[in-house]
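hey so i finally got around to running the thing on that chain from the lab meeting. sorry it took forever, my laptop kept dying and i had to restart like 3 times. anyway pasting the input first so we r on the same page abt which one it is
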Amino acid sequence: MDDTAKQALKESILHWEDNLKRVQQQRFPNLSSDACALCNNYRVLDVGVTCLGCPIHKKTGMAGCAGTPYDEVSYALRLLRPGESSVAQWKMLEGKVKQELEFLRSLEGETPGGLTPKDHGETT
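ok and heres what got predicted. didnt touch it at all, straight out
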């Protein structure tokens, strides 16, 4: 993984950590591709969503985060209604966000010299 990919992955992990905090406070996460450093580096809109070179694409072989927990996060989010959603619905979303975060963190360990937990703000 080159330095650009490492940095984008680090920023994406930080973004999903923020999403997790938001959901734990029963606030809606930001799932916009505009908020994703990986998408900002690897998405090519004028030729479709290619994602070539993205560490996620390299892992799954699919574009648009297909093959990751992202779709389940998106589905769980669509079930929520402001002021009407149950604690169980928020907990389901929280679980899905944790799965996406774990998936992203797993990509760090796939290459020699990958990021360490310290690189994205965790203590060991």
